[in-house]
Specification:
Elements lengths: L4 E3 L5 E3 L5 H8 L1 H19 L6 E3 L14 H16 L18 E11 L9 H15 L2 H6 L2 E3 L9 E3 L6 H4 E2 L1 H9 L7 H7 L7 H6 L21 E2 L5 H8 L28 E10 L11 H9 L2 H17 L20 E5 L5 H28 L2 H25 L4 E3 H4 L1 H22 L5 H4 L2 H28 L7 H43 L5 H4 L26 H16 L1 H22 L15 H12 L9 E6 L34 H16 L4 E7 L1 H8 L9 H12 L2 H9 L3 H4 L1 E5 L3 E11 L9 H20 L7 E4 L12 H33 L2 H24 L6 H14 L1 H12 L4 H31 L4 H32 L8 H8 L1 H12 L36 H13 L7 H4 L5 H41 L5 H51 L2 H5 L3 H19 L1 H23 L1 H8 L2 H38 L1 H6 L3 H58 L4 H4 L6 H42 L28
Parallel strand pairs: 3-11
Antiparallel strand pairs: 1-2, 4-9, 4-10, 5-6, 7-8, 12-15, 12-16, 13-15, 14-15
Helix pairs in contact: 2-14, 2-19, 4-12, 13-14, 13-16, 13-34, 14-16, 14-19, 16-18, 16-19, 16-34, 18-19, 18-30, 18-32, 18-33, 21-34, 22-31, 22-35, 22-48, 29-30, 30-31, 30-32, 31-32, 31-33, 31-35, 32-35, 33-34, 33-35, 34-35, 38-43, 40-41, 40-44, 40-50, 41-43, 41-50, 43-50, 44-45, 44-50, 45-50, 46-48, ...
């Protein structure tokens, strides 16, 4: 490549970046490359459609593929559908022989109207009822209603079938009276009563003997002698004085459910006067099939939307909205139901029908808000980039990422379906893609005011900007991608698909930025240069680029250098560097205290308010009219009081494969009809029939399972019906008996007595004589109001699990079965095995997924920043963001429900960017902590601020959505951007200014150099060669020289007492003279024999086992706590000894194992350390002796002895006992974390947040101990030298009577030593205090969190879980998790001292190696070489 040089401010020479083939190609062919990439993306989109249009999946992706209970409901529906078609054939509504249905004769939907007179009001007042009349008159008088209403066909056999709109369920039918109309319409065949009933009982003047004899004659207008098509407008409005009697006639005097449909539950029929009802309901019926279709189930989707978008339905919606605005305080299209009178309107009217598509209207508005997010992002891009063209390119590369990802998803991955969650990734890539665009453009702008060596040409500018931006974006992209990819490990396909799709999307976006967008930036730059030349009248512009650049829109000039001068620096960059950075440095303690206080408040909020959502989330807020209509109907109006949760027992279904897939390799299941693989063979012989019938009887007799013995068991009814032949010998005989039973009067009676009886119990036919599956159902004792919370549902689930285990799996004569609790049709948001399992799985996914994603992000951060301290600070910031976002969600009133669990995974992808960018640029900079932080703010601060603003604005419109998911999604995005920028600037930057790494602190490169890896890599690179292309000039941080043994704080003696200070100085000089490169690990153990290797192996294994046994022992200690806790709760100690004995025996074995492994570990490393050190001493001493006189003349005699002793002691310490201690701490750390995450993952994740504090505190303690020991030793060395001098010359001191003088001199030199000792004590005390403080704080938070969880579970679950030890969380588990996390953190923290000892040993061994490797010119120990043959003679001459 080419190279240029220039001068920066001062005299520092700046080398230009390397310019290779890639850079030249991008610069010269930028327009072609951008166009080609755009076309390539287009054709990839075309190729993705080869498999056909994708199937939009909005539900099946939420079924777990491995947790069987999550498919039970869906599998059961398929079984029921198959069975219904097999057994019953046509439904009762199918009138014609060909199976067709009369047009609009079937109820397709209902239009419910709810009137509310507010608190203290009465809808039965005259004024309010007149408003009801006005509202419903507008509906029934419209032509649109007559075009969509459900039709009632006459029962009279006539040549021309007559049909009229079915009469609605409204109170107006009774306030408008016309008995003659009822009589005439009944005679025409539109009567509610059948023909025989009408003739026998209807009319006061009837001559029927039945009517007269029973006295049950009914006047026209009373049920059932009413017209089914009565139009209340044909009647006459009663006088208000007669309304009370009409209301009594319509409600209290009748027992039918329809008569009780009008009023709320507080309506009291026992009151003879002053009957009031705050609420009033009317129901109108919409019919199907639509004209042109023969059945309601024929092409249901198309038929539904044809009706919804018909002129009639649109007119109905328009009429009702207009009428609502006229009479109601809640206006049409309102986002919330009115809670009181507004604008003179004293009632509220809300209405809804599915075919009215009010949901679609809301979705359209929310989609517009979503598009507004995209528009706002574009505006921000335009404003901050400063070019319409580049803003369009930036948004274009974001949009282009989606079809490319779709290609990989559909063509490469072979997936046919797309889940709703995958569409939400567009907002993720919108925020991340905009942030990457800002980084690239800011890097490009920064090159404009760099030295001419960089800013002098497009090639060098692009190489510099590309290298800086691509590495920074790669850091955040890798962190985000790996954090998202970890969610693919879940068993929920929707989350799995989201993680995979999002990871691919972010990767594709990164590639788009560094290719397409980079080419667009170059096109913009060349167009800008061309126009600048043309403005100067330079004719050469015609030859520089193509003319099409002149017509390129949006080429607003970016900041660029003038010819021969550096460009002006942007003011915002200068402000960040010169104003904000010094201000933050000055007030960094205040920033840290404020940020940590905010984090503490967030932690406290999570601990106090955290609660897993107990309900399946609704699509709309409860006060939205669309949600309010069904909620008010279920909560305030009449519902059958005896409805119960129905539990099913299913036989013959393959529980290992409960769902189907369109083809092999699909991620999302396809819930079609069950295939052969969904069934397991079963033989319903006589024994199996008795077992199944007996299981039904067992459930019926169990009052804890079934209420009032209400069961639906087909085989049990068959047994009563055909007692003589039961049980049947073969399955074929049973099938024949069932076919006959379906045609019997008894089965018809069962269908009449129990609505939906065929759905509660039945079978799936296998051909003409077999049975593939069978199910029966039970009215359970599960409370009706039970929510879907996992902890709430679990006790009831366990009861039914025990039943199926007892009655099915443990009985050899019974086929295998499983139980299921589907949604209730009365209240679908109540308890269900499906939703409960889904909520539990989502909670576990969010907790474990977040923890795993943070762990993966930490590894990636270590890889890209190559610094432990920087990566730890960045991870701490990311964790703080996540904690604060979740706390914010709780504070605004949301629970940790299904939506929150899903969106928590999304937060990880959005929260890493800013902190990682700042840490990456911090590592690239040089200088002090403040200077490196200042450089990071200068380099990427503007990009971070712009990215945060973009994300913030993208979430703002979504937070205004009506859909709860969109609204919560917007709040998540808003909160993530807010806390990300807040903690990045107010927490991370002050932390970097205070404790950021300097020099080689925390450097992985320095560690690799110590371990010898760097030399190996360098040799390999030099051997094979290396070539680069583009990138910024490498800023190689110098590796500090290996410290001498004395500098490392070794315990080597300073020399003999008589040598005093001279010995220490000689040792220091000797270390400096013999300073050598640290040896590798393998070279450190170069004198180990096979026996030593065996000792090291057994010692290492024992040390790891010893470390792991410490947290293992806590496991049994936790069991002891649980046993003692149950004893206290039960109030008796009868079983205490029995319960504790087994645990104590195991603890005894653990103690024995700890003793054995500890003994072996210490013994092995002591022996091998002594053996190897002996070889070091022998060879080192031999090397010293063999050196020539000239070598010895350059060294102090006392220094040799001190160095010899110091080096050998340091090496012995590093290869002996310290290795065993380090392995023990490593085993303790790994086992502690592993056990904690296995026992209680949520609590372990919470405690893991304090792990960095433990790590740093332990590391500080080790460092302080070493440094203070050396400090005290140095302080005492001067006094020791005086003491040695006086004792060596004691006669002289005595002769001159200078004892008092020397004592005073000695006392004076002790004062610095005293001060050093006091300072060392303070430092060690603070270090120990920080460890204890962190431990106590973590323990307190863990206990507080666990206390709330235990209290919440015992408040929701059965009372006996604490006594039986079946609670999902207990005191023992809590203590176990906390102690294990504490031990794990302390283990990894204390590992530092062993690593330090190992580093010292390698450094000392390196110095010893330098001496041992030196071959002197005259070697006294060698028999070879030049030997004098004649005696040597000489002469000494003295002059002057």
């Amino acid at each position: 490549g080419e190279a240029m040089e220039g001068k920066d401010k001062g005299n520092e020479v700046v080398a230009a970046p390397r310019v290779g083939v890639f850079t030249r190609t991008m610069v010269r062919r930028s327009g072609f490359i951008a166009s080609a990439l755009f076309g390539f993306t287009f054709w990839l989109s075309v190729l993705s459609m080869i498999r056909g249009p994708p199937s939009i999946n909005l539900g099946t992706g939420w079924s777990d593929r491995t947790t069987i209970e999550q498919q039970r409901y869906d599998g059961m529906l398929s079984v029921q559908r198959d069975a219904y078609e097999t057994k019953e054939g046509k439904s009762e509504e199918e009138d014609d022989d060909d199976g067709s249905q009369d047009t609009r004769s079937i109820q397709l939907d209902t239009l419910a109207i709810i009137y509310d007179a507010f608190e203290g009001g009465d809808m039965l007042s005259e004024a309010n009822l007149l408003k009801v009349i006005d509202f419903e008159s507008a509906l029934v008088e419209s032509e649109g209603w007559r075009a969509v209403c459900q039709l009632k066909y006459s029962t009279k056999d006539t040549d021309e079938t007559e049909a009229r709109c079915l009469s609605p369920s409204t109170l107006l039918n009774y306030l408008f009276e016309n008995d003659d109309a009822h009589k005439e319409e009944c005679k025409k065949g539109f009567c509610i009563a059948d023909e025989d009933t009408r003739k026998d009982f209807c009319g006061t003047n009837t001559s029927s003997d039945v009517c007269v004899s029973t006295g049950a004659c009914k006047p026209w207008g009373e049920f059932p002698c009413r017209s089914a098509v009565y139009d209340w407008r044909e009647g006459t409005l009663l006088e208000s004085s007669r309304w009370a009697s009409a209301l009594n006639k319509a409600t209290c005097a009748q027992e039918s459910w329809q008569a009780r449909v009008f009023f709320d539950r507080d309506f009291d029929c026992k009151k003879q006067e002053d009957r009031t009802s705050r609420l009033l309901r009317s129901i109108y019926y919409i019919g199907g099939p639509v004209e042109g279709y023969e059945r309601t189930d024929e092409d249901e989707f198309a038929q539904f939307f044809e009706l919804a978008y018909s002129e009639g339905m649109r007119e109905v919606v328009s009429v009702l909205d207009s009428a609502q605005n006229n009479v109601s305080a809640t206006r049409a299209g309102a986002r919330a139901v009115a809670t009181g009178p507004r604008n003179g309107k004293r009632i509220s009217v809300i209405w809804d029908a599915v075919v009215a598509l009010k949901v679609i209207d809301v979705l359209v508005v929310d989609m517009l808000l979503a598009l507004m997010s995209v528009a706002l992002v574009f505006v921000i891009l335009w404003y901050n980039i400063g070019s319409l063209f580049l803003a369009a390119c930036a948004l274009g590369q974001i949009i282009l990422s989606f079809p490319v990802t779709l290609f990989f998803w559909r063509v490469v991955g072979g997936q046919d379906q797309i889940e709703f969650m995958q569409f939400m990734t567009i907002y993720l890539v919108l925020c991340i893609g905009a942030d990457d665009a800002f980084v690239f453009v800011d890097a490009w702008k920064a090159t404009a005011h760099m030295p001419r060596a960089i800013s002098g040409s497009l090639e060098t500018r692009f190489a510099q900007a590309y290298g800086t931006a691509s590495s920074a974006m790669l850091t955040t992209t890798a962190t985000t991608v790996f954090a998202l990819a970890i969610t693919a490990t879940t068993t929920i396909p929707a989350i799995q698909g989201f993680g995979i799709f999002a990871a691919v999307l972010i990767t594709v976006n990164y590639l788009e930025v560094i290719t397409f967008f980079a080419a667009c930036v170059l096109v913009h730059a060349k167009g800008e240069d061309r126009r600048a030349l043309r403005r100067k009248g330079d004719d050469a512009a015609e030859d520089r680029e193509c003319k099409w650049l002149d017509r390129l829109p949006g080429l607003k000039s970016l900041v660029r250098p003038e010819d021969g001068a550096e460009g002006a620096e942007r003011r915002v960059v200068a402000w960040l560097r010169d104003q904000l950075a010094p201000f933050m440095y000055k007030w960094r303690p205040a920033f840290l205290v404020g940020s940590l206080a905010l984090l503490g408040g967030a932690v406290a909020t999570n601990v106090l308010l955290f609660q897993v959502g107990q309900e399946f989330p609704r699509d709309f807020a409860d006060d939205h009219p669309i949600s309010a209509v069904p909620l008010v109907q279920r909560g305030s109006f009449y519902v059958a009081s005896d409805w119960k949760h129905v539990v099913f027992a299913v036989y013959g279904l393959n529980t290992s494969q409960p769902v189907t897939y369109a083809q092999t390799g699909q991620l999302f299941p396809d819930f079609g009809d069950l295939g052969d693989e969904q069934f397991v063979p079963m033989n319903l012989d006589a024994d199996a029939q008795e077992a199944i019938s007996g299981a039904c009887g067992a459930a019926r007799d169990d009052e804890t399972l079934v209420e009032d013995g209400e069961v639906f068991c087909l085989l049990k009814e068959l047994r009563k019906h055909d007692r003589g032949k039961w049980p049947y010998e073969t399955e074929k005989e049973l099938r024949e008996a069932l076919d006959k039973f379906y045609k019997s009067a008894r089965y018809a009676e069962l269908l009449a007595d129990h609505a939906g009886y065929a759905d509660y119990t039945g079978f799936v036919a296998d051909g003409d004589d077999g049975i593939r599956a069978y199910w029966q159902a039970f009215n359970s004792t599960i409370p009706r109001e039970l929510d879907n919370g996992p902890e709430v549902v679990k006790p009831w689930y366990d009861m039914w699990e025990a039943y199926t285990e007892r009655e099915c799996r443990q009985r050899k004569d019974s086929p295998d079965c499983y139980h299921m609790l589907p949604q209730s049709w009365v209240d679908p948001y109540r308890a269900s095995w499906v939703f409960s399992a889904l909520l539990r799985e989502l909670f576990e996914v969010s907790v474990t997924g977040t923890g795993a994603s943070l762990a993966v992000a930490y590894v990636v951060l270590l890889a890209v920043t190559r610094n432990v301290i920087t990566a730890t600070l960045s991870l701490f910031t990311i964790a703080s963001i996540i904690i604060s976002v979740i706390a914010f969600i709780f504070l605004i009133g949301f629970e940790y429900d299904m939506f929150s669990s899903v969106l928590t995974v999304l937060v990880i992808g959005l929260s890493v960017d800013y902190a990682v960018h700042l840490c990456h640029f911090y590592e690239m900079a040089r200088g002090s902590r403040f200077e490196r932080t200042q450089a990071a703010m200068e380099g990427v601060g503007v990009s971070v601020l712009n990215g945060a603003l973009t994300t913030f604005m993208a979430g703002l419109p979504l937070a205004s959505s009506v859909l709860v998911f969109f609204q919560l999604f917007g709040f998540f995005i808003f909160a993530t951007s807010f806390f990300a920028i807040l903690y990045s600037f107010c927490l991370l930057l002050p932390l970097l200014m205070t404790m950021g790494p300097e020099g080689n602190q925390g450097s992985i490169d320095a560690l690799l150099a110590y371990l010898g890896v760097t030399r190996c890599v360098t040799r390999c690179a030099n051997k094979h060669g290396a070539a680069g292309d583009v990138g910024s000039p490498k800023r190689v941080k110098p590796i500090a020289p290996v410290p001498a043994a004395s500098d490392l704080g070794s315990s080597a003696p300073t020399g003999a007492a008589e040598e005093g200070k001279a010995g220490a100085a000689g040792a220091a000089e000797q270390d400096e003279a013999e300073a050598g490169e640290a040896v590798s690990i393998s070279e450190l153990f170069q004198f180990a024999t096979i026996f030593d290797m065996v000792l090291i192996f057994f010692g290492a294994t024992s040390a790891l086992a010893l470390g792991a046994l410490q947290p293992v022992s806590v496991v049994f200690f936790g069991e002891v706590i649980d046993v003692l806790g149950r004893t206290i709760l039960l109030g008796t100690s009868i079983n205490l000894v029995q319960d504790l004995s087994s645990v104590l025996v195991i603890l005894g074995y653990v103690a024995g194992g700890a003793f054995g492994t500890g003994f072996i570990s210490v013994l092995a490393f002591k022996v091998t350390g002594e053996r190897q050190t002996a070889q070091y001493r022998k060879r080192y001493l031999k090397s010293i002796i063999r050196q020539d006189v000239g070598w010895h003349d350059e060294r102090a005699t006392s220094g040799l002895a001190a160095t010899f002793a110091a080096h050998t002691l340091v090496v012995q310490n590093g290869i002996g006992s310290k290795v065993g201690e380090g392995l023990r701490f490593l085993g303790q750390g790994i086992a502690g974390f592993l056990i904690a995450f296995l026992i209680d993952p949520p609590l372990a994740v919470l405690m893991f947040l304090f792990a960095p504090v433990h790590f740093s505190s332990s590391a500080v303690l080790v460092t302080v101990t070493s440094v203070t020991a050396q400090m005290v030793q140095d302080a005492f060395s001067a006094a020791g030298a005086v003491c040695s001098e006086v004792l060596a010359n004691v006669r002289t001191v005595t002769s001159f009577t200078a004892e008092d003088k020397e004592v005073s001199r000695f006392d004076a030199l002790l004062k610095p030593a005293e001060a050093a000792g006091i300072a060392a004590s303070w430092r060690r005390g603070l270090a120990l205090g920080s460890i204890d403080g962190a431990s106590n704080l973590a323990f307190s938070v863990g206990i507080l969190y666990a206390g709330f969880q235990i209290a919440a579970e015992r408040a929701r679950g059965p009372d006996d879980c604490a006594y039986e030890g079946t609670c999902s969380i207990s005191a023992g588990r809590v203590v176990l998790t906390i102690f294990c996390m504490e031990m794990g953190a302390q283990g990894f923290g204390l590992l530092m001292q062993s690593l330090t000892a190992l580093t010292k040993a390698r450094a000392a061994a390196g110095q010893m190696k330098a001496v041992m490797a030196r071959t002197p010119t005259i070697n006294a120990l060698s028999d070879t070489g030049v030997v004098p043959t004649e005696p040597l003679t000489g002469r000494v001459e003295f002059r002057n």
